[in-house]
Design a protein that fits this description.
Elements lengths: L7 H8 L4 H6 L6 H6 L8 E3 L8 H11 L5 E3 L8 H10 L5 E3 L7 H10 L5 E4 L13 H4 L5 E4 L5 H6 L1 H14 L5 E3 L20 E3 L8 H10 L5 E3 L7 H10 L5 E3 L8 H10 L5 E3 L18 H10 L5 E3 L8 H10 L5 E3 L8 H10 L5 E3 L8 H10 L5 E3 L35 E2 L19 E2 L24 E3 L8 H10 L5 E3 L8 H10 L5 E3 L12 H10 L5 E3 L8 H10 L5 E6 L7 H12 L3 E9 H4 L12 E8 L7
Parallel strand pairs: 1-2, 2-3, 3-4, 4-5, 5-6, 6-7, 7-8, 8-9, 9-10, 10-11, 11-12, 12-13, 13-14, 14-17, 17-18, 18-19, 19-20, 20-21
Antiparallel strand pairs: 15-16, 21-23, 22-23
Helix pairs in contact: 4-5, 5-6, 10-11, 11-12, 12-13, 13-14, 14-15, 15-16, 17-18, 18-19, 19-20, 20-21
Pfam family, one: F-box-like
GO cellular component, one term: cytoplasm
Keywords: Ubl conjugation pathway
Length: about 650
């Protein structure tokens, strides 16, 4: 039995997972049956063209006229090619519309008002960053859309206009929020109009509220919201001036809170978050991150320490998501408390927490078997041995970011152990300031015939020394599900580590080796050979580094990585026009290519553009950055080579269909 033997209803269920471009370009060219099914009304109930900048009225209007009565959802966010004619067609043909996303479009107030009047069944509306919709037009929403449940809006007002009309602006938005009786989700992030007075009457049924970057909201406004919205589940007040006083009101009134985001709230400390943790026992998602130390700030902006993490461990055992990026007060003790108590932890970000070491990874490996995403970037004490153990035991890990971890070198992901490895945190030595190399062995020699042991802990400033030999009762090799791996600027990563990653992580879709200047064509060859699903690959480097990658890398990628969509080669100095042309002719799926042109890179912008256009036809080349070496380093002697302008160019082109 083949797919062509399936019934029409079953095929339509499968085809619903395809976007409209695949329906038009792929299904209709397969066979007569699929061509006929591609016009079925069930496939066109949801028109999703988000970010499709090339969408025009001539493409959009026929769909509305033919399928208008059955269309229930339209998403044209970012489609700036649609004008008043297209917006008026929505109100004319789509009377059964339930969801409408117009964010970042040029819709005018009159067209929006007409949509509200003609499409009264709309339940979800997104008008985020629609600059031509004035605040006066929004007053019609409660009257026309009485069943509205989700609303997302951003209005940036002219400062002078806001000062002169402040009372009327506040009145309009206050009435809007008060009269939308069915509203359960409200997103007002970064809106200029949001002040405490807006929420004076409250929103009784509200379950989700996003006030991110709304600097006009104070503790008094939060008090009005918390008192009237006792059913609130999701609250985002990041990048505001809320203090511990506001957090205390939230903890008393919003006891059913499950998601809380107070990231970069510099007035919120351990005291405020601990009060929430004491009273909101259903909390599953908590974001308290500040800015990481790599953001060139003189001090950390995260006020959270191990005190908060230990309270969370005691009162919020259902915690699944925790982000403490840039919180220098978070150490191994806090992470150990969280991992021990919160067995359902799935996402952890400790980026820039400088005290995090292998002890945290060991605790995660032993306790957090549900872990799916981990960010340990800029945790400079983390070593290869800790990461090896983590990936070995956390078999559900899909996303791993380990940027700027310079002690990562000897990665060994080649075996999966289901039994707990017999080592404890007490066996982790104190920091060795000399950075000596240690050799440790995790598995006994009797198991060497079954799998390759982790035989080297790598150079470390605080890593494992002679990991003990455990009593392994049961070993089982299981496939690795890691799909996103970021090793950017891990300066000791070389071909041997890349070979291990390629052999073990064959499900990789996103891989970043930015700044890993020790990696050569040999390492990328292993990636191309084993990682057949790879879609995004970053091989760029900084201008102070010299990449060792050549046209051989491009040849390997072109011949083996048939799913590759995005390739970043910024500051690659050993690539030629021939290699780029070969890549374009053989890598059918490639849609974005980042290149640096100039004398230093031996690539001429005009020649490269001609080569790409001859292979792909029309393309869009956008200059991302221009650098004049003589202006950047004025002390260098003036010469034609040094003074040459360098350009970072991002090429975008449609996917070329293979014959």
């Amino acid at each position: 039995m083949s797919i062509y033997d399936l019934s029409d209803p079953l095929l339509l269920q499968i085809f619903q997972f395809l976007d409209h471009r695949d329906v038009c370009l792929a299904l209709r060219q397969t066979c007569q049956q699929w061509y006929r099914l591609s016009y079925d009304f069930t496939l066109w109930q949801r028109l999703r063209f988000s970010g499709f900048s090339q969408l025009r009225n001539e493409h959009f209007l026929p769909l509305l006229r033919y399928y208008g009565d059955s269309i229930q959802e339209i998403d044209i966010s970012g489609c700036k090619g649609i004008d008043a004619l297209g917006f008026n067609a929505i109100s004319e043909h789509c009377k059964s519309l339930r969801k409408l996303n117009l964010s970042d479009t040029y819709i005018a107030g009159e067209a929006f008002l007409k949509i509200c009047e003609e499409c009264p069944k709309i339940k979800e509306l997104n008008i985020f960053d629609c600059q031509f919709i004035s605040y006066k037009v929004l007053s019609s929403i409660p009257t026309c859309l009485q069943g509205l449940r989700k609303l997302s809006m951003l209005n940036r007002l002219d400062p002078l206009q806001y000062v002169l009309n402040r009372s009327s602006v506040i009145s309009v938005y206050q009435s809007l929020i008060k009269n939308c009786k069915e509203l359960v989700e409200l997103d007002c992030k970064a809106s200029d109009f949001v002040e405490d007075d807006i929420f004076s009457d409250g929103i009784a049924n509200l379950h989700s509220l996003n006030l991110s970057h709304c600097t006009g909201v104070s503790d008094d406004g939060i008090q009005s919201i918390a008192v009237s919205c006792s059913a609130l589940r999701h609250l985002n007040i990041s990048h505001t001036y809320i203090s511990n006083r506001g957090m205390e009101v939230i903890s008393r009134c919003c006891k059913y809170l499950t998601h809380l985001d107070v990231s970069d709230c510099r007035n919120v400390t351990d005291i405020g978050v601990c009060m929430v943790a004491h009273n909101c026992h259903e909390l599953r998602h908590l974001d308290v991150h500040g800015e990481s130390w790599m953001a060139l700030r003189p001090h950390s902006t995260g006020n959270i320490t191990d005190v908060t993490l230990k309270v969370l461990a005691s009162w919020c055992p259902s915690l699944e998501y925790l982000d403490t990026t840039g919180c220098w007060g978070v150490t191994d003790d806090g992470v150990r408390a969280i991992t021990t108590a919160c067995k359902n932890l799935q996402h952890l970000e400790v980026r820039g927490c400088l005290s995090i070491s292998d002890q945290s990874l060991l605790s995660l490996a032993d306790n957090s078997r549900e872990l799916r995403s981990l960010n340990i970037s800029e945790c400079v004490k983390v070593t290869s041995a800790g990461l090896n153990l983590l990936v070995t035991k956390c078999t559900k890990l899909q996303f791993l970011k380990a940027e700027t971890c310079h002690y990562l070198a000897n990665l060994r992901f080649s075996c999966q152990v289901q039994h707990s490895v017999g080592c404890s945190c007490s066996q982790l030595p104190a920091k060795d300031v000399r950075g000596s190399s240690f050799t440790g062995q995790i598995f006994p020699k009797t198991l060497e015939r079954h799998f390759q042991c982790i035989d080297e802990a790598g150079t470390s400033s605080g890593g494992f020394q002679a990991l003990c030999r455990p009593q392994v009762e049961k070993c089982k090799i299981t496939p690795c599900v890691l799909s996103h791996l970021d090793l950017s600027f891990c300066s000791n990563i070389a071909d041997d580590a890349i070979q291990q990653v390629a052999s073990f992580c064959q499900q990789l879709k996103h891989l970043s080796l930015m700044g890993c200047y020790l990696v050569t064509d040999k390492g990328i060859g292993h990636i191309a050979k084993h990682c057949k699903l790879l879609e995004h690959l970053n091989l760029s480097c900084s201008r102070t580094q010299r990449s060792k990658l050549t046209d051989q890398t491009l040849s390997e990628l072109a011949g083996l990585c048939h799913s590759l969509k995005h390739l970043n080669l910024y500051n690659g100095v050993c690539f030629s026009e021939k290699g780029i042309g070969q890549l374009m002719n053989r890598c059918w799926s490639l849609r974005e290519l980042c290149l640096t042109t100039g004398t230093r890179t031996k690539l001429d912008a005009e020649v490269i553009c001609r080569a790409i256009m001859s292979a792909r036809g029309d393309c869009i080349g956008k200059i991302q950055a221009e650098m004049d070496c003589q202006q950047r380093w004025p002390l260098l002697p003036a010469s034609p080579r040094v003074a040459t302008m360098e350009r970072n160019i991002l090429f975008k082109f449609p996917r070329k269909s293979s014959m």
